[in-house]
Amino acid sequence: MVPTDRTSTASQGASVHGDEQSPSRPGRLSILRSLWFRSRREARDDAEAGRSINMPTQTVLPPLQQVLRRLAMALLVLIFTTLIVYVDRDGYNDNVDGAVDFLDAAYYATVTLSTTGYGDITPAGDAARLTNILVITPLRVLFLIILVGTTLEVLTERTRQQVRIHRWRHRTRDHVVVIGYGTKGRHAVQTLRAQGVARDRIVIVDAQAENAEAAGDDGLVAVLGDATRSETLLKAEVQRAAQVIVAPQRDEAATLITLTARQLNRRATIVAAVREDENVPLLRQSGADTVVTSSSSAGRLLGMSLVSPPVARTLDDLMTIGSGLDLIERPVLAQEVGRPPRESEELVLAVVRDKDVLDFTDPRLEELRAGDRVVTVARATPGAGDDE
Questions:
Q1: pLDDT by residue for the chain (388 residues), tens digit each?
Q2: What is the CATH number of domain 63-149?
Q3: What superfamily does domain 3-15+173-297 belong to in CATH?
Q4: Dist CA 269 CA 107 (whole Å)
Q5: Which three-class secondary structure string do you get for the chain?
């Protein structure tokens, strides 16, 4: 890919970033407050977010294991109740024989927890009655909760989902928004992950449900909706994002998305992909800092593959993180300051100095300076391109 930089917009975004104040971070009590009280607007926003925001898929137990776990918990409650009754058996009265043994205690615990209550065994002593009030009754409620756990699980799962979305919306900032989770978007995310960007700092926006579900399966937050609409990008918190990658299928969609994203966020770095070179100026005017033309780049690689297949394979190797050789941008090391780039242990291709990119043939690169960043070719680290 051959990126086209828009220096004026980048500098403008940097100046705006210095002027704008980031939104204040909400207090930790906001999540608890949302569980207790929500205004009508907050309820409407959360309901809409719940329909369009897909949180990462979490691992759950299979249904049979969930049933067995509930049965085990119910059995533990029953055994615990039986032991409590048996320890205080002198405070209970059996209408049949007057004595309460262990079997009678288990029988009483069973009919009491199930709220059947035949009345043949009753607490007669004050201690037994107090134990029933303070211990047996809460255990009865817990027992019933376990038995109706399926229904409660649906309710609690819905609450957990709302809490996750609410927490995510209030904590997400300085993240990366990737618009389009097709081939370009997925490879962009793979590169970000290989470069050390955490999953929780990446948000996907896609109009197709299957792509949003695929992003959730990959451990990413996904927003389902049309990215050309402001409300969709606001759900992805694009107004607080640090970088935006625009990778839809059509160039006209990329232009509208870039324009909308720039209006919502004046400081973010926006990188957009288009198919045709003629649309590059339009993307720049819309607010993209960098424009990548996929068709022309693919054409150059096709031509190079025909003329010199080894060179094409080397280029593909350099563009694939964690495979053979990697292109890396890093700060200059202390031992490299004052020395020419060719004396570095890694092959230096370019140096970023004062926002200018100087290739290794530039006469100004007599020596490396403190504050420089170097673009080098290094041996790929094993597992660098693998997800955790």
A1: 445 444 433 333 433 333 444 444 444 555 555 556 666 666 666 656 656 777 675 555 666 677 777 778 888 988 998 999 899 888 888 887 778 889 888 888 888 887 777 777 777 777 877 887 788 888 878 877 777 765 666 666 666 677 777 788 888 899 999 999 999 999 999 989 988 899 999 999 999 999 998 998 898 999 999 999 999 999 999 999 999 999 999 999 999 999 999 999 999 999 999 998 899 999 999 999 999 998 888 888 889 888 898 888 888 888 777 777 788 888 999 999 999 988 888 889 899 998 889 988 888 888 899 999 999 888 876 555 444 4
A2: 1.10.287.70
A3: NAD(P)-binding Rossmann-like Domain (3.40.50.720)
A4: 70
A5: CCEEECHHHHHHHHHHHHHCCCCCCCCCHHHHHHHHCCCHHHHHHHHHHHHHEECCCCCCCCHHHHHHHHHHHHHHHHHHHHHHHHHCHHHEEECCCCCCCHHHHHHHHHHHHCCCCCCCEEECCHHHHHHHHHHHHHHHHHHHHHHCHHHHHHHHHHHHHHHHHHHHHHHCCCCEEEECCCHHHHHHHHHHHHCCCCHHHEEEEECCHHHHHHHHHCCCEEEECCCCCHHHHHHCCHHHCCEEEECCCCHHHHHHHHHHHHHHCCCCEEEEEECCHHHHHHHHHHCCCEEEEHHHHHHHHHHHHHHCHHHHHHHHHHHCCCCCEEEEEEECCHHHCCCCHHHCCCEEEEEEECCEEEECCCCCCCCCCCCCEEEEEEECCCCCCCCC
Number of C-beta neighbours around residue 196 at 10 A: 7
Q: What top-level class would CATH report for the domain 321-388?
A: alpha beta
199 burial via Cβ count (<10 Å: 0-12, 13-18, 19+): middle
Strands 269-274 and 325-331: unpaired
Handedness of CA 338, 341, 347, 350 (dihedral sign): positive
Write down the domain spans for the chain: 3-15+173-297, 63-149, 321-388
